[in-house]
C-alpha cells in the first residue's frame, strides 16, 4: 500500500472486478451506512450569491453543545488538520498511534519532528514538553474509546498543545473533551461531520477551541470555503433530530452481529473491542492482501491496515454496514474457511 493510502477506493475495486460500484460490498470504508433524511430540493438553491454560514455555525455548535464562536469550519477534516498544523507552527508532534494517517502526513509536510507512541503497548510514556500531542478517540483503525482524563491532565502539566480527534465519537456514548476548553487554552478538538452523517462527498470539518484560538485561526482562513450545497446539505442533516439516536443504535447492533461473525472464522486470531463503526482484526496464517484476494469472488472489499504505524500485513479493518452486508460477508467466510 501507499504510505498514506486510505480505504474506500471502491471505484478502482469495481473496475478491477469488471462490475458496477453498486455491486460491491464496501467493508473498507468507515462512512456511516445509514443516511439522515434530507428534506431539501437542491434545484431550488440559489447559487448565484456568495454563501453565508451563520446558520450552519449555529446548528453545528448546538449539535456539539458549544458556542458558535468556539468553532471554525473547514473543507473537510483533512483540510482542518493541515490548516491547524500550519497555523500552530510548532516544532514537535507526538501522535498516539496507530492513528489517522493524515496526522503523520501533516507532521512531515510542515517540518515537525515526529514521535509516534504505540498506544497498544503503553499510552503513559513520557511526552516532550511543549509538543503538539494528537490523540484520536475513538481511535482508528481499532475503534477503542479511551478515558483520557489522566492523559489530558499530564499533557497540561507538560505545557503541550492538545489535538483530540473525535470524528467517531458520535457512534458511541463516550465523553467529549470539550469540557476542557474553558480549563486549558491550548486545546483543539476535531469533529469530522462526514463520518457519522454519511457525507464524505460533503466536505465539512470542524475545529472546536476557545474563542481566542478560533479567532486567531479564522483570520488566516478564506472568506468562502464551503459551497451552498455543503452548507445546506449538512444543515438539513442536522435537522433530522431522530437520526443520531437511530443511527447509533443500529450501528451498535450491527457491530455486535459483525463481531459474532468474525468470532466464528478460523482465519481470525484476535478481534479488537470497538466503540466505532468498524472492527480491527489480526489475521491468523494469512495476510490482509491474501484475505482480500479470497473475498474478491464475493465482491467484498476490506481495509488492509499494513500502512498504519505499529501494524503489519496481518491486520485488517472491517466496517460495520447493513445486516444484508453482514449476511453476505458471513456466507463468504463460511465458504472460505
TrEMBL record:
GO terms for molecular function: transaminase activity. Keywords: Aminotransferase, Pyridoxal phosphate, Transferase. Residues 50-336 form the Aminotransferase class I/classII large domain. It holds the Pfam family Aminotran_1_2. It comes from the Bacteria. Its cofactor is pyridoxal 5'-phosphate. This is Aminotransferase class I/II-fold pyridoxal phosphate-dependent enzyme.
